[in-house]
Specification:
The relative contact order is 0.12. This protein has 342 residues and is an alpha+beta fold. It has an 8-stranded mixed sheet with strand order 2-1-3-4-5-6-7-8, sandwiched between helices. The protein has a 5-stranded mixed sheet with strand order 10-9-11-15-13, with helices on both faces. A two-stranded antiparallel ribbon has the order 12-14. α3 runs antiparallel to α5 and α6 crosses α9. It has 2 domains: 201 residues, 2-Layer Sandwich (Fructose-1,6-Bisphosphatase, Chain A, domain 1); 131 residues, D-Maltodextrin-Binding Protein, domain 2, CATH 3.40.190.80. 36% of the residues lie in helices and 22% in strands. The protein has 9 helices and 15 strands. The site of 2,6-di-O-phosphono-beta-D-fructofuranose has 11 residues, from loops.
């Protein structure tokens, strides 16, 4: 009789990436280390998010702290932790985060990797115990690692990512990542042992689900085609033959994570307030698009693959549509028919 104990089944992130490294020639020890450093930063951020919730419970004083202060404090904390984390390996030459005017050089601009990240996205959700996340992309530097990097080298298209991922601080803390030559894996933080443990491997997004995740309050500000698509989804003459369910939480990572797990379409269309879209390509959309595609889904700006866009600036914003193959095909067919009928 074979007895399988709980411990035998447990695969830690470190074990998993070391094994992956042996299978994929492009996966290097430095990249593994970098991933471990990022997850260490994420664990410290998770602890601080928890502490700040506890402070709210225990202190009448902090509860009166304006939400915007707490938000700014946590964002700053997350950025600092990621800065320390990325400095650990001496392999990162450039770091880009959502609030930087310019890329920041690490190791005096030397090192093999460029890391682009949003240390804490969706902080408006913290007041309501909603999900927040860290998103990250790792790029291999093209120029010599011992020379001082020219920051414009960071303006790469998402299809050059070597690793893309996110950590979702939700009801549990989950790391989702993919890398060159690998599928999408989920790791859940086991707080008792402080390790991210493998929970799902080679994840694939279901082909179709009659769900959509879009902030529909912008309806009046959308283009005619996006208004038409919303009317179509909420009518009966669509692929499902019934109104689709709306699933919008207002935190892009958890909204996309849900689509990744159960299927459907996530969208943030352009509107007259944000005619070029709201979400940032480099540090939010690219890691999500990399994961979505690796899971068998599709990710576009409505016209072209997000991963093919070469940003002209680090804070490039874009419209986003991503999700299950059939939902995305339905969107694309709708647009084509709409244009043809004009
Ligand atoms: P937030 O403003 O709370 O930081 O990236 C920014 C983001 O959150 C996304 O996480 C979220 O999907 C989006 O903005 C929500 O925007 P709307 O409030 O316009 O729907």
């Amino acid at each position: 009789m074979t007895v399988t104990t709980q411990n035998e089944k447990l695969v830690t992130l470190e074990e998993y990436v070391i094994e992956a490294q042996a299978q994929f020639p492009k996966a290097t020890g430095e990249m593994t280390q970098l991933l471990m450093d990022i997850t260490l930063g994420a664990k410290i951020i998770a602890r601080e998010i928890n502490r700040s919730v506890l402070k709210d419970i225990n202190s009448a004083e902090t509860i009166t702290e304006p939400h915007s202060f707490k938000r700014a404090r946590l964002e700053q904390f997350a950025k600092e932790q990621m800065y320390y984390a990325l400095n650990r390996s001496n392999e990162v030459c450039l770091m880009i985060t959502d609030d930087m005017a310019e890329p920041e050089m690490l190791n005096e601009g030397t090192g093999k990797y460029i890391v682009v990240l949003d240390p804490l996205d969706g902080t408006s959700n913290i007041a309501f115990n909603g999900a927040v996340a860290t998103t990250f992309s790792i790029y291999r530097r093209k120029t010599h690692p011992e020379s001082v990097i020219d920051p414009t080298e960071a303006l790469r298209s998402g299809n050059e990512q070597v690793v893309g991922g996110y950590v979702l601080y939700g009801s549990s803390i989950m790391l989702v990542f993919t890398a060159e030559g690998m599928g999408v894996s989920f790791f859940t933080l086991d707080p008792a042992i402080g390790e991210f443990c493998l929970s799902n491997e080679n994840v694939s997004v279901p082909e179709f689900k009659s769900n959509f995740s879009i902030n529909t309050s912008f309806y009046e500000l959308w283009s005619e085609v996006d208004q038409g698509f919303f009317d179509y989804l909420t009518g009966n003459d669509n692929l499902a033959g019934k109104a689709y369910s709306l699933r919008y939480g207002g935190s892009v990572v958890s909204d996309v994570h849900r689509i990744l797990m159960e299927g459907g379409l996530f969208g943030y269309p352009p509107n007259s307030l944000n005619p070029r879209g709201k979400l940032h390509l480099m540090y939010k959309c690219n890691p999500l698009a990399f994961i979505m595609e690796k899971a068998g889904g599709v990710a576009t700006n409505g016209d072209v693959r997000l991963l093919d866009i070469r940003p002209g600036k680090i804070h490039y914003q874009t419209p986003v549509f991503m999700g299950s193959v059939k939902n995305m095909q339905e969107y694309s067919d709708f647009r084509t028919n709409f244009e043809d009928k004009k």
